[in-house]
Write a structure and sequence with these properties.
- The protein has helices spanning about 5-30, 50-65, 70-105.
- The protein is mostly helical.
- The longest helix has about 40 residues, at about 70-105.
- The relative contact order is 0.08.
Length: about 110
């Protein structure tokens, strides 16, 4: 021990690290391993760019064993549906812009 005055603090840190490591091993060995919402950005993706980031985070988590393949498959399935909705909303916005531009052209 380098600093005898901090002996209790060092022991508490060792205990905390051991508990965290044990919980990580238990989670990794469980059947379902998920990511927390904070790890995926804390909210649903609002743009295709945000969704691409979330998908890449999940792919990395599966590769490192942090997320299980079943959870990832369900996430990717939901992400694909969400992506289609984002595209439809984008097409709808573009169509409204074109329609309003066409309306303005007809008025002149």
């Amino acid at each position: 021990m380098h600093d005898p005055a901090r002996r209790e603090q060092a022991a508490a840190a060792r205990c905390a690290a051991g508990a965290t490591g044990t919980l990580a091993v238990i989670k990794r060995n469980s059947k379902f391993r998920t990511l927390s919402p904070a790890q995926l950005g804390g909210r649903p993706a609002r743009t295709l760019h945000e969704q691409a980031r979330q998908v890449s985070i999940m792919q990395f988590a599966v590769g490192t064993g942090e997320a299980d393949p079943t959870t990832a498959r369900e996430f990717f399935r939901g992400a694909q549906t969400h992506r289609e909705f984002l595209k439809l909303l984008d097409h709808e916005r573009r169509l409204k812009r074109v329609e309003s531009a066409l309306k303005r052209l007809k008025q002149t």
